[in-house]
Amino acid sequence: MAAEPINQFRDVARVYDSLMAPVPYRHWVDYVERLWERFGVRPRRVLDLACGTGNVASELLRRGYEVDGVDASEAMLRQARRKARGRIGFYHQDARHLDLPRCYDACVCLFDSLNYLLEWDDLVQACAGVRRHLEPGGTFVFDMNAIRALADGMFNQQGFGRDRRLYYLWRSQWDPATRRCQIDMQFHHQTRRGTQVYYERHVQRGYTLTEILTALSAGGLEGLAAFEAFTFDPPTARTDRYYFVARRPAG
């Protein structure tokens, strides 16, 4: 299976917030703050990498942080800018080629965004870009889907969005040779002009813990810890989502 993305994060931007309405963003940011506290981090300026429609960035702003966001999808950023009303700086850039005007005390990258980097070298480039934009000693917190979760069909889903005007149907295929998960997504959106149907193909790659930690090192970051999501427990063979804490060396 030669899985290649189609319209990834383009049409779905119109309905993304309805789709993600059940997600407890405050809980996710609570956990990030607990990780910062565990490692003695007190950031002021935070970069939200792969920020999407800006929901995590907005929650960080609400808690008093100075926040910028960056994403590769202009369609998602249009939604983010509309909601933020100028209170957050948003940049349209690829995670592999970051070139921002300032550095940050911390960077976060949530919702398995780095699984969308399909080659190990891409992951290294993203880590190197984060390093360039962290102050010495700055911290990088990110999550990734485990190979097990992708292989077991975590993206085989269907349901409704915030209300029944949005119906979605996702079907995934796992290729063990490439460790790529192809997710074919249909969205049926009821609007005043009738039903609009969107189709996107998303592709994620699964990485081993060793590959991820090696990519951090190759990108100039120091891996501090890996956890099972929302805990301080080490990952196991049954872990579906990893969280990582890394930092730019102070020297």
From the spread of the alpha carbons, the general shape counts as globular
Count of DSSP-assigned helices: 7
By helix and strand content, what is the structural category? alpha/beta
Number of domains: 2
- What is the CATH class designation of the largest domain? Alpha Beta
Q: State the end-to-end CA separation.
A: 45 Å
Mind telling me the CATH superfamily name of the largest domain?
A: Vaccinia Virus protein VP39
- CATH fold label of the largest domain: Rossmann fold
Which sheet architecture does the biggest sheet show?
Answer: 7 strands, mixed
CATH architectural name of the largest domain: 3-Layer(aba) Sandwich
The amount of helix comes to 25-40%
Q: In angstroms, what is the radius of gyration? A: 18 Å
Strand order of the largest sheet: 3-2-1-4-5-11-10
User: What is the H/E order?
Assistant: HHEHEHEEHEHEEEEHEE
- Low-confidence spans: pLDDT under 50, at least 5 residues? none
Q: Which percent range describes the beta-strand content?
A: 25-35%
Mean pLDDT: 96
Summarize this, please?
The chain has 251 residues and is of the alpha/beta class.
Write up this protein:
The radius of gyration is 18 Å and the shape is globular. It is built from 7 helices and 11 strands. The model has no long low-confidence stretch (mean pLDDT 96). It folds into 2 domains: 16-145 and 208-247, 3-Layer(aba) Sandwich (Rossmann fold); 149-204, N-terminal domain of TfIIb. The chain is α/β, with parallel strands linked by helices and 251 residues long. Helix 2 (25-38) crosses helix 3 (55-62) and helix 5 (120-132) crosses helix 7. Helix content is 26%, strand content 34%.
